[in-house]
Specification:
The complex is a heterodimer of chains A (314) and B (214). Chain A is mostly helical and 314 residues long. Chain A folds into three domains: 28-90, no CATH class; 104-283, no CATH class; 284-314. Chain A has helices spanning 2-20, 34-40, 68-71, 81-84, 106-109, 121-130, 132-137, 143-146, 162-177, 182-187, 194-197, 204-210, 213-217, 256-273, 286-312, and strands spanning 44-48, 55-59, 218-219, 229-230. The longest helix of chain A is centred in the C-terminal third of the chain and has 27 residues, at 286-312. The radius of gyration of chain A is 27 Å and the shape is elongated. By secondary structure, chain B is mainly alpha-helical. Classes of the chains: A mainly alpha (314), B mainly alpha (214). The A-B interface holds A 13, 16-17, 19-20, 163, 202-203, 205-206, 239-242, 244-249, 276-278, 280-281, 283-284, 292, 295-296, 299-300, 303, 306-307, 309-310, 313 and B 33-41, 45-46, 49, 97, 101-104, 143, 146-147, 151-152, 154-155, 157, 160, 163-164, 171, 174-175, 178-179, 182, 185.
C-alpha cells in the first residue's frame, strides 16, 4: 500500500514537472501559400527559362526569405500571402512595379476590441509616434521595424509563463540593440555592450530574465496594454523603488494582464489572497501584511498590558 | 543583596551585543525595503540594500562564532531541550508569566549556575538560534546570489518562496526581539538582566528558590 502511495506521489510530481514545460504546437500549413514558399521559403530558388527551357538557379534576397516554420507558428499563420500582398504576385515572374505596392500597417487590420484588458491600438499608435524610434528615425520606423509580420507572436496576453513573455519581447529589442549588429551599424558604437551598460543593476542577468527592456525604457500609459513610448536612454528608470515597492510600476506594465485576469477569474478578494509574488518589494499579499501587522501589534499590546499590570501590582 | 553567579563569559556577551545590533539594523532596513514606495523610502533604498547586505554577512559570521562556541564550550548544553515533564514545566512557566509574576510568586525555574534558561526560554532560544536565524541568513544568502536558486521546483516559484521564507523569518525575529527585550526586564529589578548581559554576573535566583517549585 505504501509503495503504491509513493508511486502515485512520484507520478503526480512528474506530471507537475511536465505540465510546467512549454509544449510546441504542431505545424498546420496553408496550401494556398505553398506556391509562394516554394521560392520565398528557400535560400535558393529555381525557374525555367521560357525560351530555352533551361532551369535557372538564383539566390533569394535575404530580406525576402520567409522562415516557414516561424510563419506557421506566428499569429498570422492562418492568413494567405495574398491576404496582405497583391494577388498579382501569383504571376511569375513578378511585375517590377509591385515593389511600389504600399505595405499594410498593423492598424489596417487590427482595431480596438473588447478584449480585457484591451490592447488599444489607437493609443499604441499615439505612443509610438512620441517614442524615440519614431522621432529620431521618422518614416523609417514602422510597426514592422520591431514586429515581423511573418514571425510575430503576441505574448502579452499569456498568463502562464512570464519568463517566456520577457524573453520573447526582449529578443525584439536585442535584434537591434545587442551591440553587435544593426545598432553598431546605425550608431557606430562598437562599445555598446548591454551588460556593461546595465552593470549598475545589482544582478543584470536576473533583471534581463525577469523584466522586459520596456519596463525601464518606456513610459507607461494606463490605457495602453503594452507601453510603446520608448524614451531616450537618459530618461530610463534608474530608481529601484519604481519596481521594488508596493505600488510597483510592473503592476501597470508586465503584470497588468495577469493581475486583470486573476481579478476577472477569481474576484478582487481572492486575487488579493492568492496574489503571486512577482518582484521583491511589490508586497505580494496585502493579507499577509495585515496578518503580520496584527501579530506585531498583539506582541506590543501584550507587552504593554503586561507591564502596566506589573506596575500596578508593584 | 543576593549572591552573583558568572553566567555570561566575554565571548557570549560580545556575540550577544553584536547580534542584537545587527538584528536591529537588519529589521529597520528590512522594513524600509519591504514598505518601499515608488517615491522612495525614509532610508534611501540603495543604502538600505547595502546596509542589509553587509549586516547579513556579518550576522552569518557572528552566528558561526555562536555555533562553534556552543559546540566547543558548555554553553550549548543550555539549548538542549529537556523533554521530561515538558508540558507540565512549560505550563508552570507560562502560568508564572501570566499570573504568578503579578502575585509576587517566586520564579518556578530560577536562574543560577546550574540553569541558565527556564523551559520557555530554552525552547524559544533553541528555535530562534537553530531554526529561524539560520533560515533567515540562508535564504538571505540565496537572495544575495539569486542565480544559484533554481527557477522552479515542482512548479513552485523558488525565488518567491525563498523571498517569502526570508521575510517570514525576519518577521519572526522582529516579534522575538520585542518580547525578548520586555522579558529581559523581569529580573528582581527591571535592569538586572541588562546589567548581567553587560557584566557577565547574574543574580543567583536559586537563593530565593521556593521549595514548592523544586
Amino acid at each position: 500500500m505504501k509503495i503504491k502511495q509513493i508511486l502515485f506521489l512520484l507520478a503526480l510530481l512528474a506530471g507537475m514537472t511536465l505540465q510546467a514545460q512549454d509544449s510546441i504546437p504542431p505545424v498546420v500549413s496553408n496550401p494556398a501559400n505553398n506556391h509562394c514558399f516554394s521560392c520565398h521559403g528557400k535560400r535558393w530558388y529555381t525557374y525555367a527559362n521560357q525560351d530555352s527551357s533551361q532551369v535557372i538557379k538564383h539566390k533569394m534576397f535575404k530580406d525576402l526569405i520567409i522562415d516557414t516554420v516561424a510563419y506557421y507558428h506566428n499569429n498570422h499563420k492562418s492568413l494567405a500571402c495574398t491576404d496582405c500582398h497583391s494577388s498579382d504576385y501569383n504571376t511569375l515572374p513578378h511585375k517590377s512595379d509591385l515593389k511600389l505596392e504600399p505595405l499594410l500597417a498593423c492598424t489596417d487590420c487590427h482595431t480596438d476590441t473588447d478584449d480585457t484588458p484591451p490592447m488599444n491600438f489607437t493609443g499604441i499608435t499615439e505612443e509610438f509616434k512620441k517614442s524615440v524610434h519614431a522621432t529620431r528615425q521618422n518614416a523609417n520606423a514602422t510597426c514592422w521595424s520591431c514586429h515581423n509580420p511573418h514571425s510575430y507572436n503576441i505574448t502579452t496576453r499569456s498568463k502562464d509563463n512570464l519568463n517566456h513573455v520577457v524573453a520573447y519581447d526582449n529578443s525584439i529589442c536585442l535584434e537591434c540593440h545587442s551591440g553587435m549588429g544593426k545598432f553598431d551599424i546605425l550608431y557606430g558604437d562598437p562599445k555598446s555592450t548591454l551588460i556593461a551598460k546595465h552593470n549598475w543593476l545589482p544582478d543584470p542577468i536576473k533583471h534581463f530574465r525577469n523584466v522586459r527592456c520596456i519596463e525601464c525604457h518606456a513610459e507607461i500609459r494606463e490605457d495602453v496594454l503594452v507601453a510603446h513610448n520608448i524614451r531616450p536612454k537618459e530618461e530610463a528608470i534608474r530608481k529601484c523603488t519604481q519596481c521594488h515597492s508596493s505600488d510597483s510600476r510592473l503592476k501597470y506594465s508586465l503584470y497588468k494582464y495577469q493581475l486583470a485576469q486573476e481579478i476577472s477569474e477569481k474576484g478582487v478578494l481572492s486575487s488579493i489572497v492568492s496574489n503571486r509574488d512577482f518582484a521583491i518589494g511589490t508586497n505580494p499579499s496585502p493579507l499577509l501584511n495585515l496578518i503580520s501587522l496584527l501579530i506585531f501589534a498583539s506582541a506590543i499590546g501584550g507587552v504593554a498590558i503586561h507591564s502596566i499590570i506589573r506596575i500596578m501590582k508593584k | 543583596m543576593s549572591g552573583k553567579v558568572y553566567l555570561y563569559p566575554i565571548w557570549i556577551r560580545l556575540w550577544h551585543i553584536l547580534n542584537a545590533l545587527l538584528c536591529l539594523i537588519l529589521i529597520i532596513t528590512g522594513i524600509s525595503m519591504h514598505y518601499a514606495s515608488p517615491e522612495g523610502t525614509r532610508i534611501s533604498f540603495g543604502l538600505s540594500v547595502t546596509m542589509h547586505n553587509i549586516c547579513g554577512i556579518v550576522l552569518t559570521a557572528n552566528y558561526l562564532i555562536f555555533f562553534l562556541g556552543n559546540l566547543f564550550t558548555g554553553n550549548g548544553l543550555n539549548y538542549i531541550i529537556q523533554f521530561r515533564n515538558f508540558r507540565q514545566r512549560m505550563w508552570k512557566q507560562i502560568r508564572y508569566y501570566a499570573f504568578g509574576v503579578f502575585l509576587k510568586e517566586q520564579a518556578p525555574f530560577p536562574i543560577g549556575s546550574a540553569r541558565k534558561f527556564n523551559p520557555l526560554q530554552q525552547v524559544t532560544y533553541a528555535a530562534m538560534m537553530y531554526f529561524i536565524v539560520p533560515l533567515v541568513f540562508i535564504t538571505g544568502w540565496a537572495l544575495l546570489f539569486p542565480n544559484v536558486i533554481a527557477e522552479k521546483w515542482l512548479g513552485v516559484d523558488t525565488f518567491a518562496l525563498t523571498d517569502f521564507l526570508h521575510i517570514a523569518g525576519g518577521f519572526g525575529v522582529s516579534v522575538f526581539l520585542i518580547i525578548h527585550l520586555y522579558f529581559a526586564t523581569m529580573g528582581h529589578k527591571p535592569t538586572d538582566h541588562y546589567k548581567a548581559m553587560w557584566s557577565g554576573y547574574h543574580d543567583d535566583e536559586t537563593e530565593h528558590e521556593s521549595k514548592d517549585h523544586l
